[in-house]
Design brief:
The protein is α/β, with parallel strands linked by helices and about 240 residues long. Helices cover about 40% and strands about 20% of the residues. Strand 9 and strand 10 form a beta hairpin.
């Protein structure tokens, strides 16, 4: 990890993989204005070389590249790096999002996108990487909720929240990967096993019950957000 990242989510080393020069320039300028160092690549093979040489703190990746699908980069990159991968793609179909996320991407932003949203997501993932580099803390607080992972105990405004084993497992899975989209398939496999990966309604039911116990307004969740058709995300900003 770069020394700058250890001090702050700003000044990170970012690999931008995009074959369209105008988009690559736009992304580079936005990141440089935030103080990041940017390395560029326009295809899968070059991206893998640059990733190996520079060990980026964050990868911003297009999927439609001249020499293959960006998912091929994600699969290879994940064999040796846990740095977050933010996908930028014109592909908006749920199947494409799920495939990239299941391969190991952390987030998915559909083109066209604004610089403000791109930078906000980059900051969130860099914060998560910095937090994990320092080790996961046993006690997590967000809003008036305190989660003590060592004691498997959750309180809200000082009162104990009684969660079922599945509700606690769901909360643990999401909070263990803050700001990252976790797919239905991943949650089902982790909590129910591989024979239940097609039963997305299991997750929806337990998530609805969990939100009633955790969120101030379950119909407008602040912490446990839905990525429609894909999965869920625990938002750590402001914790």
């Amino acid at each position: 990890m770069s020394q700058a990242l250890a001090e702050s989510p700003e000044g990170a080393r970012v690999l931008v993989v995009e074959d369209e020069a105008d988009i690559r320039r736009f992304v580079r300028l936005a990141l440089v204005m935030q103080g990041h160092e940017v390395i560029e690549a326009s295809n899968v093979e070059r991206a893998l070389i640059e990733a190996g040489l520079h060990r980026p703190d964050l990868v911003v990746l297009d999927l439609g590249l001249p020499d293959g699908d960006g998912v091929r980069f994600i699969t290879a990159f994940r064999t040796w790096s846990s740095s977050p991968v933010l996908v930028l793609s014109a592909r908006s179909a749920e199947a494409d999002k799920v495939r990239a996320l299941d391969a190991g991407a952390d987030d998915y932003l559909v083109k066209p996108f604004g610089a403000a949203e791109l930078l906000a997501r980059a900051r969130a993932h860099l914060r998560r990487r910095r937090r994990h580099a320092g080790g996961d803390e046993a006690v997590l607080q967000f809003g008036d909720v305190v989660m003590d992972r060592a004691q498997r105990r959750v309180t809200r405004a000082g009162a104990v929240v009684h969660l079922t084993p599945m509700e606690y497992g769901l909360l643990l899975a999401l909070t263990s990967h803050p700001d990252r989209v976790i797919t239905h398939r991943h949650l089902l496999q982790e909590l129910w096993g591989p024979s239940h990966v097609a039963h997305a309604h299991y997750v929806r039911v337990h998530m609805g019950n969990l939100r009633k116990k955790i969120e101030v307004d379950p119909s407008r969740p602040r912490w446990l957000l839905t990525e429609t058709g894909v999965g869920y995300r625990f938002v750590s900003a402001g914790t």
